[in-house]
Design goal:
The protein is mainly β. The chain folds into three domains: 87-174, Immunoglobulin-like (Sandwich), CATH 2.60.40.3780; 210-562, Neuraminidase (6 Propeller), CATH 2.120.10.80; 573-651, Immunoglobulin-like. The protein is 5% helix and 40% strand. It has four helices and 45 strands. The strands form eleven sheets. Strands 9, 19, 20, 21 and 22 form a five-stranded antiparallel β-sheet that branches. The longest helix is centred in the N-terminal third of the chain and has 18 residues, at 2-19. The radius of gyration is 27 Å and the shape is globular. The N and C termini lie far apart (58 Å).
């Protein structure tokens, strides 16, 4: 099958070459699987846990017609146009732009931009609209039609600076997109008895079982635990549970649809839930969207990537100026001979976008291949092809900082990057093969995730240490970068008492009061440490292997702890069954956090109900024994005894 795809690709490329010559490389016809269509194709299930397969994958390199270069004319060039206030994307001289690319012009009001002309070497002049950002500091030129792969696009215009107009010009090239083929799975995920929980009143929900191995309620500072298990046993989907292991809320997703990175953020002054949702191919990135839901669990935003891409699963942030920042993974055809790869190869170009939530326009786009040499990677290009593109970077966290820089973490270069927000240029590299700083003992990371800047300037990192493992165990690492001495020093680290080796995923979260919370990624643990580094809480999802071939088990990409108040827009749920001479009534309300007691009403008809029993809430589902009644209903009461919801009336 793989050989057939390659032969077809070479045939099509030869036809394209006979019609048109490309600047800097041969043309090819893109294998058509649009990114937008990928969302409706079912992905291979459980593939985030295949980090070890990705790293160890060995397939012989093949030799085909030379593809176009995807590396830029000048590595790590500035996106700030000389003599202007404009930061642009794509980066001038880039060769990895999308055929659906909008041209982002950030740094001057839209009314200061004029005479915008966009032209492709194959497609000619492009008409389009200039759409202002709602923040008032720029605009995107949105072409009416797409560009052609392989062509060079030139942008010209004028920007008002002071009292006069200043001309500007830059160019970039369009990449050959080569989206990952997504195929329907052949096997159905199985629910494993004893490894998940079921409820009478909510039969559609089967959360994975949670084992709490250490919990002292007197040390608990409050909050619930947020995760998003995938691959079974039990449902996949965003999930909140109490420290005692009782479920609070779960959104069970359709089979082979996944969620990651469930957290609490703020939008328009209100606390909201955000999570990524979509499909995960075997390559370990995401093809989906970001969802923002209110405290009633109603989606209020579906955030999509611009420029023809889908949102990746790795990181997402809502910013206070009605913008959002998230990661994207774009696979493109690329000549990889500069890094000992095939001439007819493929590459995963990780990037991040900053989008205007009110207009959907891309304010800023930063791509890895434009700024980081392929040789910085610990992954290898020799076996890169359409099925397993060269994942040289693997961006997994984006941390916008108040000082006008952004901190990035890339798994496959073992490096952190500080980039200048105005120019997009990498100014500092921490760790990896060739750091620009002096690394003191104990500061080197390997395959790390979730780099974040803390209020005191210290950087927290989830240092996986593998796969393959180069550290004896995974740790939470805290480092400090001294710009005056250009030195990185170790501040402290957090270690699990049971040494864990998490080959992928994971995070470190600072809690109020100085505590720390860690989700261990591919090791499905959730752990809280106090400010002295002592473990004060520990729980894990099922450790039952779900893959006999690879020994993988259930995981959650990240784990967090947040204070959260939820009152669902839907009613409580009820079930009843005969119990001796009476009834066992089961009450639950998926996501409700304010229920203190349940009141059971019964009667001879739905119109003649009266109280027949009550009980304090006892976890997600409460069982209440009551006298027999033809019809029953439950009412949810808060701590003040106020009715905050009631179920449907059912037959007893």
């Amino acid at each position: 099958m793989d050989g057939d795809r390659r032969a077809h690709r070479r045939t099509q490329q030869g036809r394209a070459n006979s019609e048109r010559a490309a600047d800097g490389g041969s043309l090819r016809l893109v294998r058509v699987l649009p990114w937008s269509a990928a969302l409706i194709v079912i992905a291979t299930g459980g593939t985030l846990a295949l980090a070890s397969v990705r790293i160890s994958h060995e397939e012989a390199a093949y030799s085909g017609p030379a593809a176009a270069l995807c590396e830029p004319e000048r590595l790590n060039a500035s996106a700030l146009l000389p003599g202007t206030p404009l930061t642009v994307s794509p980066m001038p001289g880039a060769r990895d732009a999308s055929r659906d690319q909008q041209i982002s012009l950030l740094g001057a009001p839209a009314q200061a931009l004029s005479n915008i002309h966009v032209s492709g070497t194959f497609t000619g002049a492009h008409r389009g609209r200039l759409i202002a950002y709602s923040q008032g500091d720029g605009a995107s030129f949105l072409p009416e039609r797409p560009f052609d792969p392989g062509e060079t696009v030139t942008v010209r215009g004028e920007v008002r600076v002071g009292g006069g107009e200043r001309p500007f010009s830059f160019h970039f090239a369009i990449a050959y997109a080569d989206p990952i083929a997504i195929e329907a799975p052949t096997e159905k995920l199985q629910l494993t008895p004893g490894e998940y929980t079921s409820y009478h009143s909510a039969p559609e929900i089967h959360p994975p079982s949670i084992a709490v191995t250490y919990y002292n309620p007197s040390l608990d500072g409050g909050g619930d635990i947020f995760g998003a298990p995938y691959s079974g046993p039990g449902n996949t989907g965003p999930m909140i549970f109490e420290p005692n292991g009782q479920l609070v809320w779960m959104d069970p997703l359709p089979e082979h649809v996944f969620a990651t990175n469930l957290q609490v953020e703020e939008y328009e002054g209100e606390k909201v839930l955000t999570w990524w949702q979509g499909f995960i191919p075997q390559n370990g990135f995401g093809l989906g969207e970001e969802i923002v839901a209110n405290s009633a669990y109603q989606p209020i935003l579906h955030i999509h990537a611009g420029n023809g891409y889908l949102v990746d699963l790795h990181d997402f942030h809502l910013e206070p100026d009605h913008t959002a920042v998230f990661t994207v993974a774009a696979t493109i055809h690329c000549n990889l001979t500069s890094d000992n790869g095939p001439r007819d190869g493929d590459l995963t170009d990780f990037l991040f976008q900053e989008v205007d939530l009110r207009t959907g326009m891309v304010r800023r786009e930063w791509t890895s291949v434009d700024h980081v040499p392929l040789s910085a990677s610990y992954a290898k290009a020799e076996q890169a092809d359409a099925e397993w593109p060269f994942d040289f970077f693997h961006l997994n966290s984006v941390d916008p900082r108040a000082d006008g820089t952004t901190l990035l973490s890339a798994r496959n270069t073992w490096q952190l990057y500080l980039i200048d927000d105005r120019t997009g240029q990498v100014t500092t590299t921490i760790g990896g093969k060739d750091p620009s700083v002096k690394m003191e003992e104990g500061t080197m990371t390997a395959y790390q995730h979730d780099a974040a800047t803390l209020p005191d300037g210290v950087i927290s990192i989830f240092d996986n240490g593998g796969t393959p493992f180069v550290h004896p165990q995974t740790r939470g690492l805290f480092i400090e970068y001294d710009q005056q001495t250009n030195t990185v020093k170790r501040v402290f680290e957090l270690l699990h008492p049971r040494p864990l080796q998490s080959g992928s995923q994971g995070d470190v979260q600072e809690l109020a009061g100085g505590n720390w919370f860690m989700g261990w990624g591919s090791e499905p643990y959730f752990t809280e440490f106090n400010s002295s580094g002592q473990m004060i809480y520990d729980a894990h999802l099922s450790l039952q292997p779900i893959s006999s071939e690879h020994g993988e088990h259930l995981a959650s990409y990240r784990g967090y702890k947040f204070e959260w108040t939820g009152t669902p827009s839907y009613p409580p749920s009820i079930a009843a069954e005969a119990q001796g001479g009476g009834l066992a009534v089961y009450a639950s309300w998926n996501g409700a956090t304010e229920v203190a007691r349940w009141l059971v009403l019964g009667g001879s008809s739905p119109q003649a109900l009266h109280p027949i029993g009550q009980a304090a809430r006892a976890g997600f589902e409460t069982a209440i024994s009551v006298p027999a009644a033809p019809y029953v209903q439950v009412q949810a009461l808060d701590w003040a005894g106020v009715i905050i919801g009631h179920s449907a009336t059912i037959k007893g």
